[in-house]
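User: I'm writing a tutorial on reading structure tokens. Could you give me a worked example: one chain, its sequence, then its tokens, then a sentence or two explaining what the tokens reveal?
Assistant: Sure. Here is the example chain.
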Amino acid sequence: MNIKSNYPWLSTIMLFCMLLLLACPGQVSAHAYVVKSIPAANEALDKSPEEITIVYNEPIERVFHSLAVTNTSGARVDLDNSHVDEKNPAKLTAGLQKNLPDGIYTVSWRVVSADGHPITGVLPFIIGSGESVPIAETAAAAKSLPDWDGTLIRWLQYTGLSLYLGTLFFHLFLLPKAERREAYKLGRSQWTLIISFVLTAAGVVLSLPLHAKLDAGVTWSEAWGKDVLGETLRYSSFGSIWWTQVLLLLILAGLTYALIPKWSQGEKPVFAGMAVGTILAMFAAKAFMGHAATAELEGVAIGNDFVHLAAASLWLGSLLALAFLLPAYSRGKTDPAERKQLYWATIQRFSLTGAVCVILLLGSGIYGIKIFTPSLGSLFTSIYGQVLLGKIALFIIMLVFALTGFLRGRRQNKVLGPAVWIEFSVGIVVLILAAILSNLPTALSNPGPAHLEDTTRTGYTVMIDISPNIMGKNEFKISVKDPDGKPVTAIEQASLKLTSREMAMGTLEINMPGNTSPVIKEDLITMAGRWEIKYHVLLKSLDSLDGIVNFTVGNPK
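And here are its predicted structure tokens:
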């Protein structure tokens, strides 16, 4: 079979995907968080430190950062010289005034993640003696949801690309082969392409001042300033991604012009295939900017994010084609039998497309939940998890409508009618939630209290509870059940050795008092992120219980 002659757009898609690998930056991360600070959060020091150092889990931008240290009266005691370390771009440092008096001090920091998200936080420390200030009471409060402007601009781009992709797919696959070339003359199809491109262009263009506004902490009017935009483009990782998107947008503009019959002649399937490749490249660029770049298996996570976004967009865009384009094109057929055959043949092809999209969405969605939600409880304790649950609920609603459409397509006894528009409307809301999720830190930053269980070789079950499971002061509780499932009350002694799985910083050892059950002690966790616990429990029966468990520590709200 001659692929080039029968499917001229397939080779074009492959070409654009190869070009994308060269055009897109190799790494971009999302939502930095503190993994270590010197002094540590809530630490009591014997003497005044010379500087403050904060280390993040990923490189931060070298622009639009700040680090201020204030005393209890609100006066600044730092030297206003915060800077990102030249050798370690994940380290922020600022000098302090000499010989600070005893007291409580507050470090207020603001940095920009490599993906352009501004992150803020507060870390207290103490010089000399005095009461400790719990981090949960002094840390900057996290916003419940991102601002409307960021959500709107991302939604514009998601919606524009989805509608454009669905329209192209209508011409390239959903329609019967004999109808595809003629369908490009359909007025609705042409207007859908134009409107979709305008939405996409608005999302891409406005994303630059949006990131400048968020990164620099300025207003919308100030964000349009030459200096602010210039620094965003030259010094931030988002700048290189934005230029890639603009290049792809210009290519898409030319292809949009070529796809309109009254503007341009030529092989429309070839131009449509090139446009599909361009859109897939824009999806991939979005995946490189998202949460996936912070995963342990970065390449797999980025690929998974790309598949999820592309499958969701294809499903939603194809729904618009069924609801808006297919009825208009079918009316051009005067023969009722021919019109019916066209309608149901297209519906059946969409059923196949929808089935593939659902499989891809389920697989990629489950994997995304696995890597971004450390526990089932974090779906309910974090804003990210709660929005994700809303997205899942709407997906199930769309799935019910899709199943109804699939059954009708097989029976060919009743047109889909308003159900397609309802499914499409739910999909638009899903895109809004997707835009919100892309602006939120994942559930890894707020996993909630940790409950860890491990069964030893002798059949005992060791349970470790950590609350509130954030960087700073926490309560550690160890309880044990015997092989029969009964609580063990005779614990002689217990200890925990905590080791960070993200950076070498030694071992935090917590020795817990015995003769009680459960055994409880308060202690500090000095950084957020992934940790390993080696536990040791000695029972009065002289049975020794040892094991290893892993957990994720969140940031204070």
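What the tokens reveal: The first strand starts at residue 34 and ends at 38. The radius of gyration is 28 Å.
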